[in-house]
Amino acid sequence: MTRITLGGAVLRGTVSTALVASLMSAPALGAAPVDLSKWSPEYVRSIAGTQDFDTAADCAKVTPLDYKGRLTFWYQGVFEGDPDLLRQYYKDFFETFRKTYPNIQLEDQALTYNDLLDKFRTALLGNAAPMAVRLQILGGTEFASKGYLQPLKPEDVGYSTEDFWPGAMKAVTWDGVTYGIPTNNETMAFIWNADIFKRAGLDPDKAPATWDDVIKYSKQIHDKLGIAGYGLVARKNAGNTPYRFMPQLWAYGGGVFDEATANPTYEQVELDSPQSKAALQASYDMYVRDKSVPVSALTNQQADNQPLFVAGQLGMMISHPSDYNVMLDLQAKATGADKEKAQTVIDNMRYGLIPTGPDGKRAVVFGGSNIHILKPEYVEGGKVDEPAAKAIICMWTSPEWSLKMAYAGSNPGNLNGFKTKWMKERLDSIKFLDVTTSMLPYGIPFPALPQSPEIMNIIVPDMLQNALTGAMTVDQAADDAAQKVKDLMGGL
Amino acid sequence: MTIVTGKAEARRRLQPGWSGALRKIWEHRADYAYVLPAIVVMLIVIAYPIYYTVELSFFKTPPGLQLRDKSFIGFDNYTAILTSAVFWKVTWNTLIWTLGSTFIAFVLGFATALALHRDFIGRGVLRAILIIPWVISAVAASYIWKWIYHSDFGIIGAVLVGLGLADRPPNFIDNVSTVLPSLIVVNIWREFPFAMIMMMAGLQTVPDQLLRAARVDGASAWQRFWHVTFPHLRNVSVVTILLLAVANFNSFIIPWIMTGGGPSNASHIWITHIYELAFGRQRWGVASAYSVLLFLMLMTLGYFYVRALSGNDRKEGSA
């Protein structure tokens, strides 16, 4: 059931008459979707807090609140790089679910981004998977293509496909059938320390405009201050690596395939193109030639960059809006002089758009997670409690919880989440949120292919490591990676 | 006249043996009943996985398909492994890792055991301290050492830079040349206490009167060690070395947590490579073939281990 805060909206005077009218007439589960063609920080602010949702009442239409059942559920949970705020929301969600559905026996298990795929794949081999799972965006097509997942679309849990980002829906679609629902979608932004910029002789309020500028700034910071300029990460089997390298690859005009184009076909491997090699060369220049990035980049992930940044030992990095909250958490844990030092860093923390390539192309990974229901034959016990699974899916993908569960680090998968009061609260309390929402239109989804996890988690990081360690030249590393992708696509 | 054929003769000769064996089994039926549950469990959790791994090693398992869609390819996985450059690189890494870790951990453990065998004040405390690396969880130790080695902010680097011995922190684990030796050091640190304990136990068995007699006869310290002590420790040394070698061949935690096999596969050893092939890249068939090869190697080591143990038993039995 929907309760529309019409009075509030009119009083604020920020919402157009047409939008208000559409909100007034729209039932909760068929609310007018957010107009993506108008997407801008101003538009996001204008719709925030304009609509109320009653999650329990909405989900009761999918699964009655007194339903008695049992659900096994695995999800990619919070990890060491997430802020405490998000930890609290996860706790709140499961408490609320248990209160809302007191007769569903929920057996939930949280796994980190890097462990979930391995564990889930192993469980599937032994027909011991959970009934429902929330996977990173990369995982959907892999498991759908292998036939492990049940068809599942937003309409099955009371929502509309239009309520979700079209790019996110592509990631859960295989052979024209939808196998999951996006829970959250994200784009990252470029973060820098204005104080470090100033001390290095750079404009403290201006982010590097291009990736070539990033290389120059990184070197200048390193040479003048003796600290790392840019927070390069190149660890293998870590989601952080593709999330930071792919924007660079795309900005230079490269790609694994043609995923950065409007209508990708994924037929031609582009990792060995001159543009892709130029992107790899940029990383090489920073790591090997200029030595302006952390030496530990090959074993680092973003969680390793965060302490460096808050300690004032790192000038720039790519990350979520949540890193601001992470810095606050880290500062709260610091003692003595470190506390003051961390506060200086936080005061000087700036967010900007991710730099462009030489031709003005700006790109960022359109990331996120999806939620799925397994087929009974792959589940422990051979049974799936569908109403119970749909209950938790309805709740997680609701405007309320898809926003709360992405409160600090991401954006709601359900676009109606942008209309909730919590979105307004978020805009008021989370510094720099505008920047990451501004990056959303530049978002490029990973190739919607079953082979994507291997490409992004193993082949791309391998390519970086081969070039950065000198095990191969830049050309050889790119050619080697392209060949591996071709072999993979050829079934080898 | 009775005509005895060759076959009947052979059967006659075998009968006492067979009936003897059966009689022995019958006499010890209670003992067999006691170990039966363990044997059944082992058959389920060890024998079947071994069988399935061997079977899977003859199948192609494309990563884009379910395991049940596998296709039989005979020995192709083995051929692919043995002709791939990665196999030889990983094998070389595994040999360096296993031999380096085993040999140095043993020598260090043995030397420490000899030092602690003497009576001195604080021996008990020192012994307890030295056992700590062995009892610490490998996962915790790996994370601690990762920070000790950190190429930007590691403790070793900070000390060296602080003392003016280096301009910048040494690159231990982000360098293809130094990563494996750096991991071996961590492994030795964790394993030498095990060798120390084993050798200390062995030293307790060296008869004091022999050492005293050798001293009376004018034998030097080295001569007493080489001619009296060491012969008594030969068997426990063999067992210790074999156990360390098997453990090192099977190592996973330290290299996986500290480097994930990187950078650029420079610290991949067999087990980490098999894990990545199977769970990261879903090449179950190839990973199974690797596992079969590893199994055969470990069985060979296991054979020598059992031989060493039964050699001990025989000697003790005849003494």
From TrEMBL, chain A:
GO biological process, one term: maltose transport
CDD domains: PBP2_TMBP_like
GO cellular component term of the entry, any: ATP-binding cassette (ABC) transporter complex, substrate-binding subunit-containing
A Pfam cross-reference name: SBP_bac_1
Molecular functions (GO terms): maltose binding
Keyword set, alphabetical order: Periplasm, Signal, Transport
Segments forming a coiled coil: none
Cited InterPro entries: SBP (IPR006059)
SUPFAM superfamilies: Periplasmic binding protein-like II
UniProt signal peptide: 1-31
Tree of life domain: Bacteria
Stated family: Belongs to the bacterial solute-binding protein 1 family.
UniProt xrefs under PANTHER family: MALTOSE-BINDING PERIPLASMIC PROTEIN (PTHR30061), MALTOSE_MALTODEXTRIN-BINDING PERIPLASMIC PROTEIN (PTHR30061:SF50)
Protein name listed in UniProt: Sugar ABC transporter substrate-binding protein
From TrEMBL, chain B:
Keywords: Cell membrane, Membrane, Transmembrane, Transmembrane helix, Transport
Chief location of this protein within or outside the cell: membrane
CDD domains named in the record: TM_PBP2
Location in the cell: Cell membrane
Membrane-spanning parts: 32-51, 95-116, 128-145, 172-189, 236-258, 287-306
Domain ABC transmembrane type-1, chain residue ranges per copy: 91-305
Protein name from the UniProt record: Sugar ABC transporter permease
Protein source organism: Mesorhizobium helmanticense
